[in-house]
Design goal:
142 residues; alpha+beta; 7-stranded antiparallel sheet; 6 helices; globular; Heat-shock protein
Length: 142
């Protein structure tokens, strides 16, 4: 996650962003290899092409909506609510892990409209929810 978001969060909430852990370097590479293997791609480029071509758009959901309820979104698409979620902010160079409840509570501090495309997944790698910079939400499940 970008440093400015951490600074903004600290300023607004008077506490640190509740990231369980940040995954970088060789650990991030291992997570990405596992994710890519599960989704039958070899590179970030192949992944993003697959995302563009195969993920399902949730027409009536927009991440910019103030009343967005991630529990309802996950229930609607048949994904069991996980304890932790992994969040990719950019090309899988680093991934942050949040408790799902913190992801829901602080989503507006994690995802910035017009700036961020993020992928959300868990350690099973069985599903991915993608949030585009313009608010569209897509998903795919294995």
């Amino acid at each position: 996650m970008e440093v400015f978001k951490l600074v903004n969060f600290k300023h607004e909430h008077n506490t640190n962003m509740p990231i369980v852990r940040s995954i970088e370097g060789s650990e991030c590479e291992a997570v990405c290899r596992s994710l890519f293997h599960r989704w039958h791609v070899n590179t970030p480029e192949e992944f993003f092409k697959k995302e563009e071509q195969e993920f399902v758009l949730l027409d009536d959901i927009n991440a910019e909506d103030e009343d967005l309820d991630w529990n309802k979104v996950f229930n609607r698409i048949g994904i069991p609510v996980p304890n932790e979620v992994f969040i990719n902010f950019e090309r899988f160079n680093n991934v942050d892990v949040f408790l799902f409840k913190d992801f829901c509570k602080y989503f507006d501090d994690i995802w910035y409209p017009a700036a961020d495309d993020i992928e959300v997944f868990d350690a099973s790698f069985n599903w991915i929810v993608s949030v585009k910079h313009y608010g569209a939400v897509h998903y795919a499940k294995i």
